[in-house]
Amino acid sequence: MSVETGVTRTPARTATGKAVDVYGRPGAAGAPAVLLWHGMGPDEREIVRPVAEAAAAQGVVVLAADWRSDAADRGMAHLLDSLAFVRERAAEFGGDPGRVVVAGWSAGAGAAVATALRPDLFDGWRPAAVVGLAGRYDVPARTTGSVPLKDLADFTGLTGIAGLTAGTAPAPVPVRLVHGTVDDQVDIRSSWEFAAALQGHGWPVRLDEPRTDHAGVLGSEFDPALGRLRPSTAEHALEGGRITARALVEAAGATA
């Protein structure tokens, strides 16, 4: 258990063997569940630990799942497997499977947001909210194979979804976006464009713009020696991580 946060990290595995770290407070029960995906680096669930712990300390159960962008299907099976895991097993770890937020960073951002836009691919299931961190939304999402911006434009035409009256389109899902203003990997204009499109189609959306970079929204920095992110002590990254953790918690509707 983290002494600073009072949060435990419990290792688990999906049905196909991919690792999942579950962060939560001891004794949690019925807490909102947040499924959090990392970016392009294969099997890098560890890099989201700073914001996962911070969010869990505020009352949510966070499930950080491994996936591989270099898989033949660009990671789709791994991502969908972890989505099934949280829907089926969140309660074992104190989470509420009826209140699932799907969140992702970088390449994981579009994958997360897309789950709200294509209920036709998930038997009508939709997350309670989605969170995109420093992502692009104009390229095919790795969960659906389609482009979130285009899916948004087509959304009102979706009918025949399980659980809905015939001819009725599904309602919008709350969207939270976080993007650093000095991100030199994914231009913040990607989030500006997506937020504007969401607003234009009547979706509830909030965009936070911390003055940090691509890694900083995870409270982290790139370590060339490791070849991956590590927790940062830079103030801009600490603030970026705090803003992201708050976004996850608020999207889930949790209270500390």
Automatic annotation (TrEMBL):
The protein's name in its UniProt record: Prolyl oligopeptidase family serine peptidase
Hydrolase among keywords: yes
Gene3D superfamilies the record matches: alpha/beta hydrolase (3.40.50.1820)
Domain Peptidase S9 prolyl oligopeptidase catalytic: 73-207
Pfam family, one: Peptidase_S9
Record InterPro entries: AB_hydrolase_fold (IPR029058), Carboxylesterase_B_AS (IPR019826), GDXG_lipolytic_enzyme (IPR050300), Peptidase_S9_cat (IPR001375)
Tagged with keyword Hydrolase: yes
Keywords linked to the UniProt accession: Hydrolase
Domain of life: Bacteria
GO molecular function: serine-type peptidase activity
Annotated GO biological process: proteolysis
